[in-house]
Batch of 4 targets.
Target 1
Amino acid sequence: MIRYLLDDVLNGTGGRLRGNPPVVASLGTLERDARKVTPGDLFIAIKGERFDGHDFVVDAQANGAAAAIVGEAWAAAHPEIDLPLIVVDEPIPALQRWAGWYRDRLNVRVVGITGSVGKTSSKETISGVLRQQFRVHHSPGNLNTEVGLPISILTAPPDSEVLVLEMGGAYAFNELTLLASIAKPDIGVVTNVQAVHIERMGSLEAIAQTKSELVAALPSTGVAILNGDDPLVRPMAALAKGRVRFYGLGPNNHLRVEDVVSNGLRGSAFWLASGRTRHHVRIPFLGSAGVQSALVALAVGEEFGLDISTMIEGLQDPTIEVRLVFQAGPRGSQLLDDTYNASRQSMLSALDVLDMMPARRKIAVLGEMRELGVSSEGEHQVVGGRAGVVADILLTYGELALPLAETAAAAERTPGPALELHTFRLDEREALLQWLKDNLEEGDVVLLKGSRGLEMEHLVSALRTEAQRDSQQ
């Protein structure tokens, strides 16, 4: 656990102390959820879209917080608070200043990763490769926003040699410019541009512009590592002040994948071509998304001077948490858990994995894809066309997914049983869960995927609990 000296917090945030100094020698975890505060922690009162952390300062104090970072206006309006307060202009800008101050004092190289999908998996594989030779700190979970990225930096141990950081940039122009000014990345990775959050940004071109801010922010000594197969990512090379490396499947990439072979549940294998050299690579990850995550990690590893055998060993690291994983389900079924988020391309990729799995029945549980704006119906229809061919049973979740269900029902299938289709509204999650509990059987493989806001991971958790009960009987 990283602990913070009071003087460092004051110097980093530019704040002032109100009240007596905390009685602890150093402050514990930086926590923004008052419910998770433990004795000695430093609470930061973040103001979000739906809540204001200042409303929970008293709760944080009751849970043992040693001090709290609060806004000046709130502090002036609450003279009765006797908790030591670090008073700043506003907590979020202060948090960002502190993270930048701390980053400047770390002797590290920074890898920044952005893209519509694949950021978290790429962060995991890159970290697995670099850990073979360096002390690596990476973003916990998916902390990649104007609040999450600073916290990711501030949780880095002082002896870190490399920071691997997710960088969002999904909601507004100049967001990634801000994040890059805090993190100061040496290497910038752009995974892809897809219609994720297009409702907010308006077009794919606008999304690409936001992602390109990372490339433009790299120094002349930096390296841009770009998905050369993505027609909206490749042109970002023109913004780079330093070197550019393309990765992908196409022949015009510096690092490319050839002859991919699926090994089922054991992962994939391919030939890695770099210049005139070729190496055979086996990875434990599933589907094309797994291959992409491995490839970007190999591209970054090359920039750190790692040899191919060391990098391949790093990709076998069991602590790597890729998004698409198998879990045990009720009565001998298997769950293909890809519940973190959803876009058209990631849905299609997950369905490709389901398609290649040997199974008694292939069951797809697909939630609606959100923030797609006017393209929502068409995007759902594309996924529905594929789902109708791959799945034996399709369950959709959410009203936005109805075009998906309708297109799946009309899909032309190869000879065999007709598609079994069930649709569930957003207020019918318990009914959806009950259907799965009642109907899953040994040999079934179940894909679960949908937008993050649906919290479909709770379905996976409930089904895993059911599987554990089965094993105890």
Note: The longest helix spans residues 287-303.
Target 2
Amino acid sequence: MRFGLHAIGVGTGADPAVIAAVARAADESGFATLWSGEHVVMVDRPDALYPYSDDGKIAVPTDTDWLDPLVGLSYVAALTTRIRLATGILLLPQHNPLVVAKQTASLDVLSRGRFVLGVGIGWSSEEFAAVGVAFDGRAARTIEYLDVLRAVWRDDVSVYSGEFVRFDAVRSYPKPIRGRRIPVVLGGNSDAALDRVADHGEGWYGFNVPRRQVVDRVGYLTERCRQAGRDVADLDVVVALLDGTPDDVPAMSAAGVTELVVVDAPPGDPGAAVAWVRELAAQWGVGT
């Protein structure tokens, strides 16, 4: 089982010197992936419930620095040589898919094929309203946008006609360097989210999953993959535990998790951040 680190892009993890320290230390310590999430805007009094906490509230204050993950990971690409770089997650239906295809292919080239695109449908209706995208239908929009991304990455000349996107005979370069594809992992912990993984993804990123639910969620995904004619063993099963400790590592591996993600905020001092990453690696058995 691999280990990921979700620690850059937000709060103290948005400072360039801290990002550099965390990224280099994670690369050297054996972490498999650096994850960075996204919110374009936050609101002070949301009506929408945050689905990844027990109380329905996101723990990040609304005035916290929150970097665009594709920009932040491009910075990390120049600082590292081995570690994978992943959005965890990008709110795909809020973006123009042709722009995302260009941005992600560019990041894949700059990182020499180390980029993983994690996407989700989003949960904040206020955020969708702010960016001018309909909240209803966002799941269907996400699936169509994934189809667009893969077509643009793959084809020399791309043509598309769907419910949300239409274009004719366009070219988009550069292409991703691993066979003109980028691995796509889909976020969300619900049955519907796992259905999307089985039907459309190369992996699942379960964020803030209670440890008591992991076996059930992986079991559901396994069965849905079987129904879709797929083997769950061919997918990345990535989990960030809501309440995990290093003692949970054997159980997560036995449950079929292929990457366990440690979610935490680094200290604001770059020197302390290096020691912090190394200590996390030692605690979780990274590289052993």
Note: The mean pLDDT is 97.
Target 3
Amino acid sequence: MYDKITYRLLESIESPILISILILLIVFITVYKTSLVDLFKYSVLNIGKGNADKKVKELRSHDVFNTLKRSANEVKLMKFYTHGKYDKVKTKMCYDFTKNKAKHCAIHMKKIIDNPNIDSMDLDTLKNLVLRTQVDMHVDYINATRNFWLDKGIEKEDVEHIVHLFEKFRYDVVNSFEHRITAFFGSGYHPNNFEKMLAVFDMWAMGIDLLPRDMQTTFENLNGKFKDIKY
């Protein structure tokens, strides 16, 4: 029956090119029939499914954590100069600042992922948690760096000056973060908590990519007053 229909169909087509194409198509479907059926079933069963069943804990594999390490390593390779001479202290201070930031950001990112209620939180609760986590990251790495430098004998006034310079250069990034978080939680493009947190982590990764630039700008604006201290 199938062969008769195929033969009549080929007989009714006058163009040799069309006949050749049809024959190739029939052969392809015949050979790969099982694979095509499986592909169709997979597509139908998963259409519209997207990330609906994904859990926030899967973001433990997000590349933001590699980005933190990479950015810290990029800063470690930087060299700073004062009046044309290599400034070892300034170079080391910049890396220590970055290292503390990377460490405490990673701690808080993993903490929010591991929150047992993260997947079922209502919109406002999750949004407030994200904003609070962002503030806690900042407070912790600033305090860790401040205490580290004070223990090294750097004057409190000088420590606050460096922190102020860094916050000045990072202000636009942090301000943009808050705007984007508000947009993520008010948008229908992120229908569940996984999608919202994925957007947040993508945003954080982008900001961390800018970190080496901001660290370089911060420490290039310092004078050489730390050059000769024992650090």
Note: Residues 150 and 156 are 7 Å apart (CA to CA).
Target 4
Amino acid sequence: MLYTSDILMPIAIAIIMYGIGINLKFKDFGRVFYYPKPIIVGLFGQLVLLPLIAFALIYYWNIDNVYKVGLIIIASAPGGTASNLITHLMKGRVALSVSLTSLNSFAILFTIPLYTQLALSVFLQDNTEINLSFYETFTKVLLTVLIPVIAGVLTNRYTKKEFTDKLRKPLRIILPAVLLSVFAMAMFFGEDNQSLKFLNNFELIIPLIIFNIITIFIGFYISRLFKNSHSTNFTIAIEMGLQNSALAIYIASSLIGNSQMELMAVIYSSFTFFSTAFFAWVLKKYLNPKE
């Protein structure tokens, strides 16, 4: 469904990021970069640890090698709007989450080709070259993340407090509803009938679930190891647990042209919003050392 992926999804993401921005101030972002340890830990976890965990988990797993490459592609595409939304709903460090999403969106221009080509070489002896457009990536991040967030922050800054207060409560319901509605359209009404593919390949969900859970907890404990705050710990855990599945689908389907690799990303995207939200809630509620 062309309109879902090319039009509705970017609009939905922009709306979500605007809603998130309403809850932020520019000083929140200043604090992130003035104390850079959390963002360094988060980027290291996403850009280095995620692919390493994926390789270690899937190398000896008894599935076709083409699916192994699919998991590496997922691990190579960290971050996304869904992680910003969950962090917002969990009242985590939203400015940190948004900053990580923006920064890794550019870093993956270099890391995705590296990890994907390595996976193709290791598992399929394939030397396919992967190229991502800096201009297209910059434009997408600018239009769907940066500008909407800035617009939201400006709304928060220059409108009356009563106005933004009235917006915040319904937005906590509207924002996830927007994201889930667009995802449902893509999943069940898309031209490739992804829901049928999911049902016919249910066994692939096992390594994907394990990967999701492992990365969430490793992200949390790596952050705790560096003595970050509890809110930083579960924010980084969310960032580790949710990858940019839409980008992974694009790489597998458009750049490599392999529907089996694409299927791994489709299956992963079908449950990680819910599983990451659940485990983030568990980490927030039950693993706070101050309680």
Note: The two ends are 48 Å apart (CA to CA).
